[in-house]
Design a protein that fits this description.
By secondary structure, the chain is α+β, with helices and mostly antiparallel strands. It is 33% helix and 27% strand. Helix 2 links the parallel strand 1 (25-31) and strand 2. The longest helix is centred in the middle third of the chain and has 20 residues, at 172-191.
Length: 367
């Protein structure tokens, strides 16, 4: 993106997404090649009165770790990251990559093992979030590799990112506040319903969300945003779901995923590509076999699949579920070292019922 767009994005993230206040400590996490956005975030946090600190990674760092890590590296919690999680008031994490396939040759068991070792950090994050002591946000930084994965020229992809964040609006903050109000109405309606059924090609999946809260994703924790989600009752999922789009996780692409649940647990699974990796991730821990999140995408400004879940899970007219860790604010009790979102198209005859009432059809909310 050009300098003006990057500045606009940084201002939106600091003023709206994290709403940084005077004296708050803020970590900026991202790779060195995202320096243009890092610089603007740093400046915007200072202007808001916050205290920024940089946590930068080099290009290829994940591959360097997994290709050389010894047993004590894989099995140890990163104590520096744990102290950061205990200290900072907010995190701004830049979601970007310069090689989408960087980890495709790494044994998935190693990745699962390292994830389990960082469980203390994710648990602490959940505790601090629930207590209102910590907040975070993810933001995009377009690269040529991301544009290539999305099937676009870099300039075209940058414009796509700009529009998806509603930075083309006269007042982006006001636009996100408008979206927030619309989605809050839907969340209140959904939170009063107990039983949900998702139907579509290759799919008939039911679950209970009784006592759970539907969360309004309105640009505070992700940018771009646009979804509503909750955490289903952990032992309630029954039936089968077939996912439309490839699911990328830790640099590995898995396609044609089909999951069958019994009493909330994955009882059977298959994939046309990447089946062994899928099995390894499902077997990470007890929580990775269950659904931590069920969600409906609501951002109709995101018009195409890009192979970046930060965007794709928000596509208006889709739904997704995540295996693994649930968000405590939704009421989910599922804990896991993984959180893997998988995306299904619903504009091809998909339907969602709440307590037997059809409220969503062909990608459109009916209420």
């Amino acid at each position: 993106m050009n300098d003006t767009n990057i500045t606009s994005l940084a201002q939106l993230l600091v003023r709206y997404s994290l709403d940084i206040q005077k004296g708050e400590t803020v970590a900026i996490r991202g790779p060195t090649y995202s320096e243009p956005l890092v610089r603007e975030l740093y400046a915007a946090i200072l202007e808001a009165g916050g205290i920024p600190s940089l946590r930068l990674a080099f290009s290829g760092q994940p591959y360097t770790f997994y290709s050389r890590a010894q047993d004590h590296h894989l099995d140890a919690c990163n104590e520096a990251d744990y102290r950061d999680m205990a200290f900072f008031d907010a995190y701004m994490a830049i979601r970007t990559y310069d090689n989408a396939r960087e980890l495709s040759g790494i044994d998935p068991q190693l990745q699962a093992r390292a994830s389990r070792a960082q469980r203390r950090i994710s648990d602490l994050q959940s505790q601090r979030e629930e207590a209102g002591a910590f907040r975070w946000s993810l933001a995009p930084f377009p690269t040529a590799s991301m544009a290539q994965e999305a099937g676009m020229a870099l300039e075209e992809y940058e414009s796509f990112v700009y529009r998806a964040c509603h930075l083309d609006k006269e007042d982006p903050v006001a636009e996100w506040k408008r979206i927030s109000a619309e989605q809050e109405r839907l969340c209140r309606w959904l939170s009063k319903r107990d039983e949900f059924r998702f139907v579509g090609p290759g799919t008939d999946l039911s679950m209970s969300c009784a006592g759970r809260t539907w969360i309004n994703c309105d640009g505070h924790k992700n940018m771009p945003d646009g979804e509503v989600f909750t955490g289903p009752v952990e032992d309630s999922a029954q039936g089968t779901i077939t996912f439309t789009y490839p699911a990328l996780y830790r640099g590995t692409e898995v396609s044609g995923i089909r999951l069958t649940f019994k009493d909330g647990v994955v009882a059977d699974f298959d994939a046309s590509k990447g089946r062994d990796f899928l099995g390894a991730m499902i077997g990470t821990d007890e929580g990775s076999r269950r659904i931590g999140e069920i969600a409906i995408g609501t951002n109709y400004g995101i018009t195409r699949f890009t192979r970046l879940i930060l965007f794709d899970e928000k596509i208006g007219g889709t739904m997704h579920l995540a295996l693994g860790d649930g968000i405590t604010g939704s009421g989910s009790r599922n804990r896991s070292a993984i959180h893997w979102d998988m995306l299904k198209e619903m504009r091809d005859g998909g339907k969602i019922y709440a307590d037997g009432e059809l409220f969503y059809e062909n990608g459109t909310v009916l209420i």
